[in-house]
């Protein structure tokens, strides 16, 4: 068994499966996720978020897979009785994009749903996440990356019911510099990372996302004033977590406790999955010690 502090992982994502009372932990697991040939994605399993089994391989690319580097930030969502992985990939001659993979179970093996990403092919994109709106329409929320636009954008596209194609033009929610807690880096970039959608107890639609603040990598929230995915989105003034950790997501434990997981610290190879209890107070998310 491994403890959380034994697992090196970036961009952690938890899928709780109630039937087996098992938490599945996905994330960026390559030894060198920045450079060189990518290997794939692994998963860890736990009953209590403290003791973990694994790693177990869930995706290894076939020889004809289009990407060979920067395998980042896999998320797994249950949709229409299948398990869909949203993950970022890149190749030297192709823009980074989010591709969707599918499997019959949480441990895969995951196979590409189509032969290319769903995000725009001439955009550098990453960190796609699935959102189902109140009309049961699937959307992908993703980042138009700072490497191409300098001031990173948060965007969404509506997907076909089978998740194979985009059926709308991209909608821009906001740019990174619009949040008071987000800062430009020394080379003039402002970063959007790691979106995750959550509807709070007051039925407000929130988005968690990451950027860099005064103390390093951070995570904040914005709210849709319409309650719809298309916004308009207004940022909360203060970051939810601002001390060198981020790329977070929310889930409920099997006891009903709302939880946040992030990776911290943000420097490789020290990043680890970190878990916080979250309390909702008047629609606000409050980290518990």
From TrEMBL:
Keywords: Glycosidase, Hydrolase. GO terms for molecular function: hydrolase activity. Coiled coil: none annotated. The keyword Hydrolase applies. InterPro entries: GH43_arabinanases, Glyco_hydro_43, Glyco_hydro_beta-prop_sf. Pathway: Glycan metabolism; L-arabinan degradation. This is Glycoside hydrolase family 43 protein. Belongs to the glycosyl hydrolase 43 family. SUPFAM superfamilies: Arabinanase/levansucrase/invertase. Pfam families: Glyco_hydro_43 (PF04616).
């Amino acid at each position: 068994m491994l403890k959380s502090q034994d697992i090196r992982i970036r961009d952690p994502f938890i899928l709780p499966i109630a039937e087996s009372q098992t938490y599945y932990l996905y994330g960026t697991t390559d030894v060198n996720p920045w450079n060189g040939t990518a290997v794939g994605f692994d998963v860890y399993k736990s009953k209590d978020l403290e003791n973990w089994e694994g790693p177990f391989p869930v995706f290894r690319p076939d020889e004809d897979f289009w990407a060979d580097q920067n395998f980042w930030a896999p998320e797994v969502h249950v949709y229409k009785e299948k398990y869909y992985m949203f993950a970022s990939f890149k190749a030297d001659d192709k823009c980074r994009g989010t591709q969707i993979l599918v499997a019959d179970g949480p441990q895969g093996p995951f196979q590409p749903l189509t032969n290319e990403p769903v995000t725009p092919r001439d955009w550098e994109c990453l960190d796609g996440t699935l959102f189902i709106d109140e009309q049961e329409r699937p959307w992908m929320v993703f980042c138009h990356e700072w490497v191409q636009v300098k001031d990173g954008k948060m965007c969404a596209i509506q997907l076909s019911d089978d998740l194979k194609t985009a059926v709308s033009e991209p909608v821009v929610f906001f740019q990174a510099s619009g949040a008071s807690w987000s800062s430009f880096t020394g080379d003039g970039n402002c970063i959007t990372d790691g979106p995750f959608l959550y509807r709070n107890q007051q039925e407000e639609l929130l988005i968690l996302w990451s950027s860099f603040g005064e103390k390093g990598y951070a995570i904040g929230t914005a709210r849709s004033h319409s309650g719809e995915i298309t916004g308009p989105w207004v940022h909360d003034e203060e970051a939810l977590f601002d001390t060198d950790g981020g790329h977070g997501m929310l889930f409920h434990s099997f006891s009903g406790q709302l939880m946040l997981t992030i990776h911290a610290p943000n420097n490789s190879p020290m990043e680890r999955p970190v878990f916080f209890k979250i309390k909702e107070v008047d629609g606000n998310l409050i980290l518990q010690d």
